[in-house]
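Model it.
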Amino acid sequence: MLAPENLEIPYGHNMNKSYSGWENNEWPWTGNGFTASRNGEDIPEWTSKNYIELELGAKLHRVVDGKDEVIGLTAENLFQKINEVKSMLKKGLHGIYKGVEYRITVDMDNNLKIITDEKEKIDATFEDTYQSGVYTKIVKPNELVDCVSIIPFGFIKGEKVQILQEKENKYQVATGSILVGSNLNLPRVDRDSWLGWVSKSEVTLIEEITPVNPKEL
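Modeled.
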């Protein structure tokens, strides 16, 4: 759960606050501490000061007029729409358990878990915690072999960018450099973040693969 001291109001520069600094963000952000509204309601806006670790398979809900609807699931720390095409982009921690490759994560209780959304890789010992089609199992470090960390990145017009996710024929790319963001015409979405979708044909995809000791996770 987020503690109040980890939250801040995302004021824009025009508010002349000592902690202002947001240049731009997506609608409904306004920079005045309240979200934009179509019906005249004033809704305070808050943001986290720090990165939030999202468990794979966690759900994003939308509640309208009392109707609760799940509209997204987390995948590699990003929410993906329920109807989005399954990503083939390989990233994060991976390892071999009993001869089969799985994604790896460590939960908030420091449990080491293997993860998959492929039913042919599971048995009765796996759990679908969020009923989202993502299955996990707690394992011991010595049960895993050939563990690696995979970080995908790409080059566009000679500029290096992060590759966050993919859909159909596009990659979502990001950078923390104002020069790279400007050169590639990426939308500025935060104080130090530029992010946008680009055609796969424009990107040279590279995987940075680093061996990982599961006992140190």
